[in-house]
């Protein structure tokens, strides 16, 4: 009964994995349209001079520039050094002056690693026509004085860290044609007065934190060609008036919280080439003449909204489209023929209600065979039915992603799928596909992800699957696949996730497959008819494997000791097999383990009570009649000491544990006692005179930079290194505390406090305590001890079972063990 529960959570988790792989469809790549039509040089000097009532002297410009310089606080390239009065300011880096009047007309300091704030004196450069501070690190606000730059035509502050609001006085710069403030931290609302800038052709506020709504007055920006407000926090509706922007070619409000119906007038933008209202809350239907009223459209996305109705048939006339995204809306009906859209690169229709769940729904796919640049085709999570048409084999080989998952698609996977030789992602999960997986799948040698789970696929897993050496995730679970797992699967050396569960697979698991060292997320072979032993040495190399499900098979034999290295396991399910032998102690040390199901096997012996076994809602052992012990909640019988062959060893260990406990209590009492004694100055720990005065640097040198050769042992709170002091040649042991581990700091204080004051022949002497900062600026705490040969006591008490060590050498006899215990108690 736990089985069904765990299966649902598993497939849920798998689905999450899946979704992560599809994110690319929602990732939006902003098309940056560069306008080349800004003529900065055709400037009528006389006209402007006469138009300006006050002609200030050129001394003002120098003063203003010097004031600008004082606010530049960071200048690693030393650009501002040239800004000194020993040379004329017109020769300063980035400054351009008018030829006759020697006034600053252009200030271009793009990409110079400058930081600082913007001086209000900038407003005194009254002849300035171009200001470009893009790609620096200017911060603080844009001064309102910017509004005094009556001749300003281009203002580029792109990619800085500018905060505050957009200055409303900017509307006074009536000559502005280009304003680019994208990628800053601008907040507040967009000043409506910017709608007065009737010469504006390019306005980009993308990637800031702007709130409020789009000012309807923007409909008066009759020269506007580019308007991007993408990735802000704008709300409200799309103003009807934007339909008047007859020159608009690029429009993006992607990634805001704009709602309401979108106005039909917007489809009158006859020059539009890129239209993106994706990731908002917009409702309404698409205009039936869409493909005719927007004849130049290249990029059209309404993805991630609440749009309903059908895709207008007129879209088939929009033959310049290369990106067409309808994903994640409430669209329905048939998808029209897209046969003229032969420039398509990315077609997203997924997460809608398209189709009628029957034959003919996918006819439109065959209209795509002439789309020779097609890379992404996403029709997942809709209501498409019928068979997958054979024409998919005639798709362009440029195709990288084919996602048809979560529909009602039936029939076979066409053999011709093997033609799509550049495919990287193929997801057909949760459909009604039947028949075998075509052996031609082996031609898709670039495939990373192949998901076909939850279908009715039958036959054997083709041997050619071993050709897919780039495969990272393979999930064929919940089908009717039979036969054995192909040995060739062992060639897929990059697999992180493998799920073949819930099929009719039989035979033993090829060792080639279990040797896959890459498997680190998921290995699920559960609910098949797999047989044989789990004696797989090499599975132990999948140190980071998180989920291992072998439940509901016919595996037999013991749990291999090599599994002791699967320390990353979160979930291990061995339910319902024929496994035998004892429950390995090492599961106790698997800190991440949250679910361990050993039920309905033939295990025997004592079940541990520590680690995961402490938690009755994480450990399942029922149906193993020969198990005993464990926590009472598991309701197992008490262990009979006479029948257990390992009892004498366990007893010894128990004695030692008790004695260690006594010693611990004793230490605690001592600590408390000393604390009380020193209450006058608490918390100024470990600054007393130690036998040695050591610094971080000296320890760094002594341990060879904490090299792994010097590593003696590691625990949860710290690592112990062997070190040789440079000055004296003395050998020390250094325990470095892992301060990121909560508790390590406390452990340091406790150990430091306790050991400093205690001298005993059975305790290692603490030579010094080091508390400071390491070379990365992190806190560093360590204790230096006398070095004891012969490694850790733990290894002596619990000899490791690893193969390459002569075990007999390290086994203590009973007398030795008692002596250890007595010494510990002392
Ligand atoms: C200002 O301009 C005059 C000529 O127009 C020139 O003689 C003088 O050197 C300039 N001063 C500065 C500081 O550029
Ligand atoms: C002024 O700038 C010039 C040109 O970069 C440079 O050679 C000179 O050293 C600078 N003078 C001072 C005082 O920084
Ligand atoms: C220049 O701008 C500053 C600050 O905006 C102002 O105080 C000053 O009076 C202006 N005029 C001149 C000639 O510097
Ligand atoms: C933004 O500016 C930083 C320097 O401040 C630069 O390293 C980075 O490449 C720029 N980003 C873009 C997209 O130009
Ligand atoms: C902003 O503009 C208003 C109106 O044009 C003007 O009165 C005010 O002085 C300006 N503020 C600054 C700081 O330039
Ligand atoms: C916007 O434009 C319309 C027509 O071009 C004009 O009548 C109206 O006054 C303008 N609005 C503003 C605030 O300038
Ligand atoms: C679209 O433009 C045409 C003519 O340019 C006009 O007649 C029509 O009313 C406009 N439609 C909308 C919804 O603004
Ligand atoms: C495509 O455009 C042509 C010419 O403008 C027009 O006759 C035809 O009806 C359009 N087709 C669709 C499906 O709108
Ligand atoms: C693809 O192009 C060929 C040759 O131009 C043409 O004969 C065929 O009808 C086109 N097919 C589709 C589905 O557009
Ligand atoms: C694929 O295209 C070829 C010719 O280009 C045609 O003969 C064949 O029938 C097409 N196959 C399918 C399944 O549409
Ligand atoms: C497997 O790959 C080899 C080349 O590496 C290729 O010759 C063979 O046809 C492929 N097998 C299948 C079934 O695609
Ligand atoms: C389980 O294994 C034992 C031997 O270990 C064998 O006798 C028994 O038949 C197996 N049970 C099943 C159901 O395979």
Describe the structure.
It is found in: Membrane. Residues 706-826 form the Protein kinase domain. With 826 residues, the protein is of the alpha/beta class. Among the domains are: 42-153 and 165-176 and 192-198, Alpha-Beta Horseshoe (Leucine-rich repeat, LRR (right-handed beta-alpha superhelix)); 446-645, Leucine-rich repeat, LRR (right-handed beta-alpha superhelix); 646-677; 696-789, Phosphorylase Kinase, domain 1, CATH 3.30.200. Helices cover 14% and strands 21% of the residues. The strands form six sheets. The chain has a 23-stranded mixed β-sheet, with no helix packed on it. A seven-stranded parallel β-sheet has the order 30-32-34-36-38-40-42, with no helix packed on it. It has a five-stranded parallel β-sheet with strand order 12-14-16-18-20, with no helix packed on it. The structure holds 2-acetamido-2-deoxy-beta-D-glucopyranose (12 copies). One 2-acetamido-2-deoxy-beta-D-glucopyranose binds next to loops. One 2-acetamido-2-deoxy-beta-D-glucopyranose is lined by residues 339, 367, 369-370.
Calculate the mean pLDDT score and round it: 83
**CATH top level class name of the domain at 446-645:** Alpha Beta
- Outline: flat
Number of separate strands: 47
Q: Give the low-confidence spans.
A: 1-11, 14-56, 642-655, 676-689, 800-809
Q: Estimate percent helicity.
A: 10-25%
Give me the Rg, rounded. 36 Å
The CATH level-2 architecture of the domain at 446-645 is identified as: Alpha-Beta Horseshoe
Straight-line N-to-C gap: 52 Å
Number of helices: 10
Strand residue percentage: 15-25%
Tell me the CATH topology of the domain at 446-645: Leucine-rich repeat, LRR (right-handed beta-alpha superhelix)
Cofactors and ligands: 2-acetamido-2-deoxy-beta-D-glucopyranose
Biggest sheet layout: 23 strands, mixed
CATH homolog superfamily of the domain at 446-645? Ribonuclease Inhibitor
The assigned structural class equals: alpha/beta
């Amino acid at each position: 009964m736990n089985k069904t529960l765990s299966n649902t959570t598993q497939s849920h988790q798998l689905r999450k994995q899946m979704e992560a792989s599809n994110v690319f469809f929602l990732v939006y790549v902003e098309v940056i349209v560069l306008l080349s039509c800004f003529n900065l040089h055709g400037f009528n000097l006389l006209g402007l001079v006469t138009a300006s009532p006050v002609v200030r002297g050129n001394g003002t410009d120098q003063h203003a520039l010097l004031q600008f310089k004082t606010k530049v606080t960071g200048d690693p390239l030393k650009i501002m050094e040239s800004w000194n009065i020993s040379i004329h300011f017109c020769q300063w880096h980035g400054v351009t002056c008018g030829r006759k009047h020697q006034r600053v007309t252009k200030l271009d300091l793009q990409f110079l690693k400058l930081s600082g704030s913007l001086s209000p004196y900038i407003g005194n450069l009254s002849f300035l026509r171009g200001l470009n501070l893009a790609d620096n690190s200017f911060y603080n606000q844009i001064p309102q004085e910017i509004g005094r730059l009556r001749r300003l035509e281009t203002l580029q502050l792109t990619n800085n860290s500018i905060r505050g609001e957009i200055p409303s006085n900017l509307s006074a710069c009536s000559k502005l044609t280009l304003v680019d403030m994208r990628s800053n931290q601008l907040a507040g609302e967009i000043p409506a007065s910017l709608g007065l800038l009737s010469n504006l052709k390019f306005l980009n506020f993308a990637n800031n934190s702007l709130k409020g709504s789009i000012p309807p007055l923007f409909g008066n920006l009759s020269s506007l060609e580019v308007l991007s407000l993408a990735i802000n926090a704008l709300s409200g509706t799309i103003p009807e008036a934007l339909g008047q922007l007859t020159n608009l070619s690029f429009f993006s409000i992607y990634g805001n919280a704009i709602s309401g119906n979108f106005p039909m007038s917007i489809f009158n933008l006859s020059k539009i080439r890129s239209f993106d209202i994706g990731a908002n809350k917009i409702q309404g239907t698409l205009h039936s003449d869409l493909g005719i009223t927007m004849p130049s459209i290249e990029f059209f996305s309404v993805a991630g909204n609440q749009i309903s109705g059908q895709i207008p048939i007129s879209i088939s006339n929009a033959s310049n489209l290369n990106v067409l995204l309808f994903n994640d809306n409430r669209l329905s009906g048939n998808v029209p023929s897209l046969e003229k859209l032969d420039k398509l690169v990315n077609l997203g229709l997924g997460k809608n209600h398209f189709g009628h769940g029957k034959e003919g729904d996918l006819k439109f796919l065959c209209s795509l065979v002439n789309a020779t640049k097609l890379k992404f085709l996403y029709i997942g999570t809709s209501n498409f039915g019928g068979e997958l048409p054979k024409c998919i084999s005639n798709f362009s080989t440029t195709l990288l992603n084919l996602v048809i998952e979560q529909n009602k698609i039936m029939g076979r996977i066409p053999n011709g799928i093997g033609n799509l030789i550049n495919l990287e992602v193929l997801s057909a999960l949760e459909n009604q596909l039947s028949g075998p997986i075509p052996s031609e799948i082996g031609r898709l040698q670039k495939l990373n992800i192949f998901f076909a789970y939850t279908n009715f696929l039958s036959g054997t897993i083709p041997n050619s699957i071993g050709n897919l050496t780039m495969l990272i995730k393979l999930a064929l679970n919940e089908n009717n696949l039979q036969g054995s797992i192909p040995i060739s699967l062992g060639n897929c050396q990059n697999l992180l996730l493998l799920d073949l569960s819930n099929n009719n697979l039989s035979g033993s698991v090829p060792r080639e497959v279990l040797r896959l060292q890459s498997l680190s997320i998921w290995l699920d072979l559960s609910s098949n008819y797999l047989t044989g032993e789990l004696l797989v040495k090499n599975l132990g190399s999948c140190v980071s494997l998180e989920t291992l499900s072998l439940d509901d098979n016919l595996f037999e034999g013991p749990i291999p000791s090599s599994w002791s290295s699967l320390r990353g396991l979160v979930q291990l399910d061995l339910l319902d097999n024929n496994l035998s032998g004892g429950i390995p102690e090492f599961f106790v040390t698997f800190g991440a383990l949250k679910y361990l199901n050993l039920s309905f096997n033939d295990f025997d012996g004592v079940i541990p009570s520590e680690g995961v076994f402490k938690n009755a809602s994480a450990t399942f052992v029922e149906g193993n009649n020969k198990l005993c012990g464990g926590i009472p909640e598991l309701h197992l019988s008490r262990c009979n000491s006479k029948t257990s062959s390992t009892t004498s060893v366990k007893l010894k260990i128990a004695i030692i544990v008790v004695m260690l406990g006594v010693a611990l209590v004793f230490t605690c009492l001592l600590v408390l006692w000393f604390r009380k004694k020193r209450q006058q100055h608490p918390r100024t720990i470990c600054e007393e005179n130690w036998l040695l005065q050591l610094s971080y640097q000296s320890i760094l040198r002594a341990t060879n930079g904490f090299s792994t050769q010097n590593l003696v042992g590691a625990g949860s709170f710290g690592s112990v290194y062997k070190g040789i002091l440079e000055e004296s040649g003395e050998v020390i042991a250094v325990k470095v505390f892992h301060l990121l581990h909560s508790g390590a700091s406390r452990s340091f204080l406790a150990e430091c406090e306790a050991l400093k004051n205690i001298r005993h022949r059975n305790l290692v002497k603490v030579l010094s305590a080091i508390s400071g900062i390491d070379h990365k600026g992190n806190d560093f705490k360590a204790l230096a001890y006398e070095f004891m040969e012969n490694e850790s006591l733990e290894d002596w008490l619990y000899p490791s079972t690893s193969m390459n060590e002569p075990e007999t050498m390290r086994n203590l006899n009973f007398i030795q063990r008692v002596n250890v215990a007595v010494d510990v108690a002392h």
